[in-house]
Amino acid sequence: MRKNLLNLTVAAGLVALAMAPVAGAEESDADAMIKYRTNAMKSLSGHMGALARTVEGKVGFLELVLPHAQAIAAISHKTAEMFPEGSDFGDTDAKADIWSRRAEFDQAAATAAERADGLVAAAEGGDMAAIGAAFKEMGKACKGCHDQFREE
Ligand code: ASC
Questions:
Q1: Vertex 62, ends 137 and 65: CA angle to 5°?
Q2: Among 1, 108, 110, 128, which is least packed by CB within 10 angstroms?
Q3: Best mutation site among 146, 147, 150, 152 for ligand 1, i.e. most ligand atoms within 8 A of its Cβ?
Q4: For residue 13, how far is its CA from the centre of ligand 1 (angstroms)?
């Protein structure tokens, strides 16, 4: 009897383990969007941080300047879409202002995308002074949006 109970407990545990990925699949669409954009923004920040060291001349990965810039531009162009209606609750630092001042948010995101295109153009040109200037403008666009629309 006792052994049967033990077997049952073990079996229940195994079933729970097997179900774990299914439970993961139950993540809501809003939570998935929040998770996606949080990671996308972290990627953006990673590319910016890597580029900063290159622009400062501290590292010499010049062949990565263009791919960093292209990733920054690709993500920036999709940023506004990553904040759909209904994705304002959950594990997010996004301020409600994004949705209550939507046109301004979209404009700030569009400015970032434009600056990112400028960074790509400079990276294609290969002139480090121009890349540095474009990088600085991109950073200002990031900050401009964060100051208004992201919690501290
Ligand atoms: C970055 C980064 C940001 C912006 C911002 C600019 O590299 O991760 O959020 O630039 O700090 O001031």
A1: 40
A2: 1
A3: 146
A4: 45
Model confidence, pTM: 0.84
| Pocket lining for ligand 1, CB < 6 angstroms | 45, 48-49, 139, 142-143, 146
3-class SS of residue 152: coil
Amino acid letter, residue 103: A
Which pLDDT tens digits describe the chain residue by residue (152 residues)? 455 655 555 555 444 545 554 555 689 999 999 999 999 999 999 999 999 999 999 999 999 999 999 999 999 999 999 999 999 999 999 999 999 999 999 999 999 999 999 999 999 999 999 999 999 999 999 999 999 999 98
Amino acid of residue 85: E
Separation of 103 CA from ligand 1 center, angstroms?
Answer: 22
Whose tokens are 């401009």? That residue is: 144
Return d(Cα 58, Cα 23) in angstroms, integer: 46
